[in-house]
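If you are new to this repository, start here. Below is one unmodified record pulled from the training split, so you can see the exact layout before writing a loader.
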Amino acid sequence: GRCAGAAAYSPSLTDWTVMVPGASQMFLTGPAVVRAATGEDVEPEVLGGAAIHSRESNVAHLLAADETRATAAVRRLLSFLPRAVGEVLPRLAAPLRTMPGPLDEVLPASPRAPFDMWRILDGVLDGGDRLELMSEFAPAMITALARLDGVPVGVVASQPARRGGILDSRGAAKVARFVAFCGRFGLPILTFVDVPGFLPGTTEERRGVINHGASMLAAYVEAPSPKLTVIVRKAYGGAYIAMGSRSVGADFTWAWPGAEVAVMGPEAAVGLLHRRELASAANEAELRAELAAGYRAAVTNPFVAAEAGIIDEVIYPGETRARMAAALRICLDPG
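And here is the target side for that same chain:
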């Protein structure tokens, strides 16, 4: 129902808030007060309805068609959690394993072409129930509860199908909240990286991308949960560091053979490092392509990252599930 005035602080202080479109509303000042104070005439649903709070404010994190489905969503969420902080995770003795197509065939030939990260997640995670949280907000980042080898896990993943998987201030805030939640309940955090960097520009700087990015780094560092990370395609700049890298406490890190790990992408790096050479070139496009290829081989190559200790190992896509499941067992059952 409606939650107005100081009472609206209550749901915002909880871990997760579920709303029903057309029924649930939240606002500090209702339509009548807004009209009296500012002259603005606004309907309750427009002022603080489920769509506003799930897509814009991020005060709501789950939408349900009706109250019955809202209750069911809460039951699903609780099924991934221990009975209390510090207690054993609710593992499934016989995890449901799906058999999707080969992961090697998921990535497009072009490193810039979009694809649906869920196709990779389906090839790594257990089948069965999954629960995506905050799906309407900052959709270039996926935050979901799922299971791996029967163990409940929190999943953070780039979503190249939405804005190329770029990380922005909203995405960083979303991930920070989710990772902190997983840390409180001891849920292992699995991160799947295909990030071109933080979104540049004046809008993002004014939205406080520095603060939100720092909060994301801090959430990973402070989370005591096991943290496993795989780079599936690209990991550039500060966005890679924020996405569950070794620098922020990842216990295990891997990369697929075609992955690229660098402070920036080849095209941007070449334009910055060789701008004079490119400006005077007889065929700029040809020279740019040649320099970018050299940069990929010498800098972004995942084997270079492995030699530098930035990642643990380069693995084939088909090995990802087995490696992550084995690492999870080591983290949860070190004896």
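Two things worth knowing about this chain: The radius of gyration is 22 Å. Residues 283 and 289 are 10 Å apart (CA to CA).
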